[in-house]
Amino acid sequence: MELIEEKIFNKQNFTIQPLPKGEYEKCTFTNCDFSNTDLSGLKFIDCGFISCNLSLVKLNNTALRNADFKDCKMLGLVFEGCNAFGLEVNFDSCNLNHSSFYQTKMKKTDFKKSTLHEVDFTECDLTEATFENCDLSNAKFERTILEKADFRTSFNYSIDPDLNRIKKARFSLPEVVGLLHKYHIEIDHVD
């Protein structure tokens, strides 16, 4: 597999000319369109993706080791297909709607200012993950490890404490009521 190091890719349309198979190390992809492409088997190590469209990309056995995504559109990605060895990603101001992290180990992952509507975190390990100012509307948490995860500034989540491990997870008012949705109770604020 070819090694490509410290290369900058700017405004590349990989839907027309696919990204060559290889190992990308310390590369930066800015304003690139990967939508509906196949990145299976590729390796991205210490790479950054800025303002890219990665929607519906195939990630079968793709290695993402210390990959940072900023201002990216990432709809419908299936992260459980990634190479699990060394999987480390961080997201800042990304749209990850309808993506899946089923059974992935995502310890200490940073999700910042991102939209995570209907994302599947079932059986995912999110120990010490940070959800900073994230919209988690209809995100699915079942048998998810959320120990020491930080949800203090995030909103629209619904997490069942009986179905998930939330020991020492951090929440804040008023959004903490997202832990009580299953009870269908009404909570009023009284001064």
Describe the structure in your own words.
The chain has no helices and 10 strands. Helices cover 0% and strands 19% of the residues. It folds into 2 domains: 1-78, E3 ubiquitin-protein ligase SopA (Pectate Lyase C-like); 100-191, Pectate Lyase C-like, CATH 2.160.20.80. Strands 1, 2, 3, 4, 5, 6, 7, 8, 9 and 10 form a 10-stranded parallel β-sheet that branches. The chain is elongated, with a radius of gyration of 18 Å. It has 191 residues and is mainly β.
Blueprint (SSEs and pairs):
Blueprint: E1 3-5, E2 8-10, E3 23-25, E4 28-30, E5 43-45, E6 48-50, E7 63-70, E8 88-92, E9 110-112, E10 130-132
Parallel strand pairs: 1-3, 2-4, 3-5, 4-6, 5-7, 6-7, 7-8, 8-9, 9-10
CATH overall fold name of the largest domain: Pectate Lyase C-like
* Subunit arrangement of the protein: single chain
| Number of DSSP E strands | 10
**CATH secondary-structure class of the largest domain:** Mainly Beta
- Percent of residues in helices: under 10%
Mean pLDDT, to the nearest integer, reads: 94
> Rg to the nearest angstrom?
18 Å
Report the structural category. Answer: mainly beta
What is the CATH architecture descriptor of the largest domain? Answer: 3 Solenoid
CATH superfamily of the largest domain, by name, is: E3 ubiquitin-protein ligase SopA
Silhouette:
elongated
Low-confidence stretches: none
Number of domains: 2
| N/C terminus separation | 65 Å
Report the β-strand fraction as a percent range: 15-25%
Could you give a short account of the major beta sheet?
10 strands, parallel
The number of distinct helices, counting runs of at least 4 residues, comes to 0
Order of helices and strands: EEEEEEEEEE
